[in-house]
């Protein structure tokens, strides 16, 4: 969503007085860091949409925290009932499982020729792994930051 403030403004308009809404969304993730690297890779840049480097959400590129969203919704007239930024580390038992997980999230495969998708899948894993790393036992990890937010319309 390109204009999050406008989205929250619309939610404010739609909620009845004393209405509440809950949100959970991703703020930061190594996958988002991997996308611009894929876009610059000569192997893939001719297949990918021109704006792929602009894809990561603003929350990621501008490194927003829960305080940013708390202030944003309060400025719109909401009361914040709950606001928490959570660091998540998910361990995957194998490279293959993590690779399949990443590929299932990725919206780029339709742009990649069928005969190139296996290599694309490997490269997506490699670029993301460079961002997220491995555990001491060698298993891959996915690192992310999520926001949990519950708000209430006052009037």
UniProtKB/TrEMBL annotation:
<dbReference type="InterPro" id="IPR029063">
    <property type="entry name" value="SAM-dependent_MTases_sf"/>
</dbReference>
<protein>
    <submittedName>
        <fullName>Methyltransf_25 domain-containing protein</fullName>
    </submittedName>
</protein>
